[in-house]
Amino acid sequence: MDTRSIDRILKKYNHEQSSIIGILQDLQEKENYLPEKSLEYISERLSMPLTRIYRIATFYNAFSLKPRGKYPVNVCLGTACHVRGAAMVLERIKMHLGIEVGEITKDNVFSLETVNCLGSCALGPVVVIGNEYHGKMTSAKVSSTIDQYRKDL
Amino acid sequence: MKKIKTVKDLEKFRDAVLSSRNPDKPCITICSGTGCHAFGCERVTQGFRDALEMHGVSDTIDIRTTGCHGFCEKGPLVVLYPQKIFYHGVTPGDTAEIVSDTLLNDKIIDRLLYTDPETGEKIIKEEDVPFYRGQMRLIFGNNGKIDPEKIEDYLAIGGYSAICRVLSALSSSEVIDIIKKSGLRGRGGGGFPAGVKWESCRNAPGTARYVVCNADEGDPGAYMDRSLLEGNPHCVLEGMMIGAYAIGSNEGYIYVRNEYPLAVKNVGIAIDQLRKLGLLGENILNSGFNFDIKVSRGGGAFVCGESTALMASLEGQAGEPRAKHIHTVEKGLWDKPTNLNNVETWANVPLIINRGVEWYTSIGTEKSKGTKIFSLVGKVNNTGLVEVPMGMTIREIVYDIGGGIPEGNKFKAVQTGGPSGGCIPESLIDLPVDFDRLTEVGSMMGSGGMIVMDEKTCMVDIAKYFLNFLKEESCGKCTTCRDGIRRMYEILDGITKGEGKEGDIELLEDLSWVVSGASLCALGQTAPNPVMSTVKYFRDEYEAHIKEKRCPAGVCIALISYIIDDQKCTGCGKCVKVCPRSAVTGKKKMPHRIDPEICIRCGACLASCRFDAISVV
Ligand SMILES: Cc1cc2nc3c(=O)[nH]c(=O)nc-3n(C[C@H](O)[C@H](O)[C@H](O)COP(=O)(O)O)c2cc1C
Ligand code: FES
What we know:
The structure holds 2 protein chains of 2 kinds.
Chain A: H1 3-12, H2 20-31, H3 36-46, H4 50-59, E1 71-76, H5 79-83, H6 86-97, E2 110-115, E3 127-129, E4 132-134, H7 142-151
Parallel strand pairs in A: 1-2
Antiparallel strand pairs in A: 1-3, 3-4
Chain B: H1 7-19, E1 27-31, H2 34-38, H3 41-54, E2 62-66, E3 78-81, E4 85-87, H4 95-105, E5 114-115, E6 122-123, H5 130-133, H6 151-156, H7 161-169, H8 172-182, H9 194-203, E7 210-215, H10 224-231, H11 233-247, E8 251-256, H12 261-277, E9 281-284, E10 289-297, H13 307-314, E11 338-342, H14 343-355, H15 357-361, E12 371-378, E13 384-389, H16 394-401, E14 411-416, E15 422-425, H17 435-440, E16 449-454, H18 459-473, H19 479-496, H20 504-518, H21 522-526, H22 529-547, E17 562-564, H23 574-578, E18 584-585, E19 593-594, H24 604-608, E20 614-616
Parallel strand pairs in B: 1-2, 7-8, 7-11, 8-10, 12-16
Antiparallel strand pairs in B: 1-3, 3-4, 5-6, 9-10, 12-13, 14-15, 14-16, 17-20, 18-19
The structure holds flavin mononucleotide (FMN) and FE2/S2 (inorganic) cluster.
FE2/S2 (inorganic) cluster (FES) binds at residues 76, 78-81, 117-121, 124, 126 of chain A.
């Protein structure tokens, strides 16, 4: 665990308990997920019960307690994407990666998540891989789009 | 940057900006909203930079990257000023040609122009494109004119003149009076009169008070708040400053969805600029008014858009709503009087101050004034963000602006109001859209999502979709919401799987009554709306699922199968290649067949067939 970088985050938020959501967001940005050891450390430094931190970490969808892949695959299931067939795209991605939502591939490259609207509804169905948006997805395009990332490794 | 200490300083700064700019100087504006980003607008911008450099005209032609223009479907969008030539679907490969032909030799490139699908006519100017022509883009239109990272751009279109006027000439009660008279109603959902809310907050006992901007935008399918905050953050900030002055607040918060990184970035840049110029901080414009704004990122929970949950989240707690015997205008954030408004509500405020009550109230309907930005998405040709005067009919929005339904399919319904709203059927297509009319027909305005559905959208599936969403997003505090929605979802799930029973619809109706009547916050209270409105207008579709085990729209997987027409199939083998489960078999050049036992109904074969040989039954 890199305590120095956590201290930097805590300092940025003045060690305020009320900024716990921002603190966890910054931690997740750094670590890709919320490691248990780091949460324990934050709990100590903020004198904040670990249970309260876990309550926040599990209440909000943005947080992951499990490691995520190098390229998290995020499938939008918002209404606009739904009516254009997002559910089918998701099924196809599950099949292609061989994992369920919330899981990670054996090689730790991809993990699968869903989100309710990314605010790019005009391009629906939308899939975000890493930080890149892929609009107008179809089940037929799934394999080639994902395999592109494997190639780039 | 030099500090701006007085109104005079600000006007001087504005004059300096304006006189340094020549309105006739050619300018390439490139939409850089999230939609166009997904289409690769950054590479297009770079392409233009390189092309200008190559021709040695970087000094005589400007480049401006702007916020979202709204017509996301056709991105990346490029508008060439001063002629306002509108090119869509521009690729990096087109940029050199645009510079050499259009900019340097006045030659229009036909293939990049928008073609009116009805008349086949090529349209040159942005304002003549039917998608824009029917709109009234009072708030959203500025997105295309400014670079959101440059406060100078906002000043150049008259920005911050409303706050100047307010701080130098109006008392706080005069400002509240103007907002009350304008009839401005909250754009975040309920449509509560903003001026009345401001007044209650100002009159609430206490010393500290807060103003908060709700940019949580939880409605899945709506993105106007995102585009405003990304494309024109200063107009939202100016609105908040005016509100804070009127209410007597020195501290503001913007609560932004976690999924909106560009909005967080742009609003952060805008706040920094204001602080550096002294337009946020102490003694703003020498008026004695102190105010600052912080940005807080949400954690991705729909319920946090609700006022009390949002405030709990701002305090660093789990976002659970509380009972509102005491209103948040009296005891909100940290138990202090707090005024919460939506992004678009705040963005209306400078406009009202600048243009006056009389002008503003001339737009819209009797009880809904001004314009509303809708996110027109789903099964419609021109998807994107549209701003129209309140009272425009659904038909005008979907057909005149939206260009109708793709692939010649038939319009079936529009869904408004997000998970709290309902579906409006074709028989009500001439309904004028405003707060009250939408509520009357069993839907609501919500934040402005407008999802168009066609004959291939199953209404039972839509109801199930929303209840699934709400079941996940319920915070779990009230039993009726936590368990009631789950039960309703299970019934709907059964219906879509062919397990529906006689009496299911009545049971859904009973449950709706309990869930809406006994839940604490509006999430639970409105959760049955998607079910009730679809039962009301599309009961026959429910009955087809329950009695005949049939999905008329061909959506519910358990009730449909795919078949190949022997007469039409040429045996090209394309479907064999795309089928993920090898369910399609057949000899080359001979009719193929699909094994219903293996088929997962993913639709890949249907999409791949060029001979229209595959159908859903
Ligand atoms: C479950 C739920 C979700 C909501 N989500 C939002 C939202 O995402 N954005 C928003 O502005 N208002 C949302 N609201 C409405 C807010 O509670 C509040 O009424 C609004 O922000 C007030 O601002 P306005 O008067 O300017 O509309 C939501 C309400 C509920 C019950
Ligand atoms: S519904 Fe998918 S981006 Fe909005």
